[in-house]
TrEMBL record:
Name the record gives this protein: KpsF/GutQ family protein
EC number assigned by the record: 5.3.1.13
Pfam family, one: SIS
InterPro entries, per database record: CBS_dom_sf (IPR046342), GutQ/KpsF_isomerases (IPR050986), KdsD/KpsF-type (IPR004800), SIS_dom (IPR001347), SIS_dom_sf (IPR046348), SIS_Kpsf (IPR035474)
Length: 340
């Protein structure tokens, strides 16, 4: 007697796409078009419930948990991660593990975001029931407004109930793409409401290419033995200062300590034949580019070498021209990112 396991369920079969020799990229484009249509419908569907969810996540004093099972669970993990990285701490709670002790993570006043396209996944019931007993606020994301999950939610975010992008309209594709986009929309709206800017993101995301891009002069500048000279200092002293630093530049400061110009070694032959009798103030470049403590490293990288120098002085601020550091190309080379 033949059983259901007598054949390989993953053995390739002669599908219509294969028999008609449809190019894979054509199928890929159709998937992207279908999911794009779902996203467009989702954008139009956002209503006051979205506003309420953002308000709850912004002003709610409790913690935020995100849950789901299957593909929705994978999306839930990503939403929790995005909320955390944009200033609203959140964590994923697995609905099955919750029934084996992790329910203790939830407390009264917490917010539970639950993802389920059908809104009827049995694995979610215990977690949702427990959240209700604790009077935790439930935000449900799904496509069936009359489903058990959406009916018990404090806030129901309904995604358009359109076809999946897979050829048999079963594999979660369009629906999970819409869930993912809705999670991003929530995170960014909450980020905006909480006034989270680059400074906070820089603290939350110091690693990788993103973290490297967010680093600023203050993070890498050298603050000791700065190559600084006075306006009236003779050029032999200036050259000695530049040689000691090995940076090819010297900042020229006034009596009050403010930077008034920069002398760059690569420009000296073009401006003076005999340096011995000259003063720093005569040969300095009053318009040399300098960084501020908050100048991003990518901006510094773009400007290094423009005037022939591989180093730039860092001043305290736009209205405070006291030199506080120096950044060289060597500083920018110590990156955690792969080289371009």
């Amino acid at each position: 007697m033949k059983t259901r396991f007598d054949s390989d369920p993953f053995e390739p079969v002669a599908t219509e796409a294969v028999t008609r020799s449809i190019p894979p990229r054509k199928i890929g484009r159709e998937v992207v078009i279908a999911e794009s249509a779902g996203l467009a419908a989702l954008a139009e569907a956002l209503d006051a419930s979205f506003d309420a969810a953002v308000s709850l996540l912004h002003s709610g004093g409790g913690r935020v948990f995100v849950s789901g099972v299957g593909k929705s669970g994978h999306v839930a993990r990503k939403i929790a991660s995005t909320l955390s990285s944009t200033g609203r701490p959140a964590c994923f709670i697995h609905p099955v593990e919750a029934m084996h002790g992790d329910l203790g993570m939830l407390c009264p006043g917490d917010v539970l975001i639950v993802l389920s396209n059908s809104g009827a996944s049995m694995e979610l019931r215990g977690l949702v029931d427990h959240a209700q007993r604790l009077s935790a606020r439930i935000v449900a994301i799904g496509a069936r407004p009359d489903s058990p999950l959406m009916r018990v939610a404090d806030i129901a975010l309904v995604i358009p109930d359109g076809p999946e992008a897979c050829p048999v309209n079963i594999a979660p594709t369009t629906s999970t793409t819409m869930m993912l986009a809705l999670g991003d929309a929530l995170a960014v709206a909450v980020m905006s409401a909480r006034g989270i800017g680059v400074e906070r993101i820089r603290l939350l995301h110091p690693g990788g290419p993103i973290g490297e891009r967010l680093r600023v002069a203050e993070d890498v500048m050298r603050t000791d033995a700065l190559p600084l000279v006075g306006v009236e200092d003779p050029m032999p002293e200036v050259l000695l200062c530049m040689a000691r630093s090995g940076l090819g530049i010297a900042g020229v400061v006034a009596l009050g300590g403010g930077l008034v110009g920069v002398i760059e070694a690569d420009r000296l032959p073009a401006v003076a034949r005999d340096l011995a009798g000259e003063r720093a103030g005569f040969l300095m470049n009053r318009h040399a580019w300098v960084a501020r403590r908050e100048t991003p490293l990518d901006e510094i990288a773009r400007n290094l070498g423009v005037g022939g120098s591989d180093a730039a002085l860092v001043i305290a601020g736009e209205n405070d021209r006291r030199p506080i550091g120096v950044v060289s190309a060597r500083n920018l080379g110590t990156s955690g990112a792969w080289p371009a």
